Amino acid sequence: MPSVAAALRLVIVDDSNVARDAIAALVNQLPGMTVVGLACDGVQGVTMSRQMRPDVVLMDLNMPVMGGIEATRQVKAEAPSPAVLVVTQFEEEALRQAAKDAGADAVLFKGELSGSLEAAIRGVVAKGMKMSVDSETVKQPFNGVKVFSATMAHDREHLGDKVTGWMRQHADFEVVECRVTQSSDEAFHCIAITVFYRDPTVAARTA
User: Fold this and answer.
1) What is the pLDDT of residues 42-78, one digit of tens each?
2) Element (H or E) spanning 94, and its range?
């Protein structure tokens, strides 16, 4: 996933020239977003996703050659994979569920594009970022110092509670350094906290 300072790169996959161009025009008007590819069917969409490595793929469902559900499955099978936001005119729950089962991060109806597209795009990006770095690293990079790091998009209060809870659980640890970094634009915020610490129980066992 990109840093929040970089423009989000999108590929649009839709067999309708009118819909494809209209969605591209909407995206290019949004702050911090740019369209890097247009595809007219699922096969082209999968190929373009592999070549362009976008942050988000906007995927139609009903297309010739390869439909959006199979294309979504193939795009999400890549590592790393972009977020996939399905954009469709069909409101059937079965299709919506099939798209999610294929790996789609969210579904947006075309009638909602003008008022909801930006929030939907940023939502699927944030969904990927929230779980991107959220674990304790057990490596010992120098002098027995270990690293705990956590990153959260949007939700600063949740992140603070998480780090506070970790500190309480490890009250005996010696905190060597604590770093806080933040990045944001008009609509997106990300904060990261890194704690460098020593575990005295390890030193006692090796003494």
Assistant:
1) 999 999 999 999 999 999 999 999 999 999 999 999 8
2) helix 93-101
Q: Which residues make beta-bridge pairs with 35?
A: 10
For residues 53 and 195, what is the distance between their CA atoms, to the nearest angstrom? 32
User: What residue type is assigned to position 90 of the chain?
Assistant: F
3-state DSSP assignment of residue 84: strand
Using 50 as the pLDDT threshold, list the residues of the chain that sit under it.
Answer: 1-5, 130-142, 154-155, 185-188, 204-207
What is the amino acid identity at position 96?
A: R
The pTM of this model reads 0.62
In 3D, which of 193, 16, 170 has the Cα closest to residue 87? Answer: 16
Burial bucket for residue 30 (CB in 10 Å: 0-12, 13-18, 19+): middle
In total, the chain counts a number of residues equal to: 207
49 contacts 75 by C-beta, under 8 angstroms? yes
> Greatest CA separation found in the chain?
72
Strand duo 145-153 + 174-184: pairing: unpaired
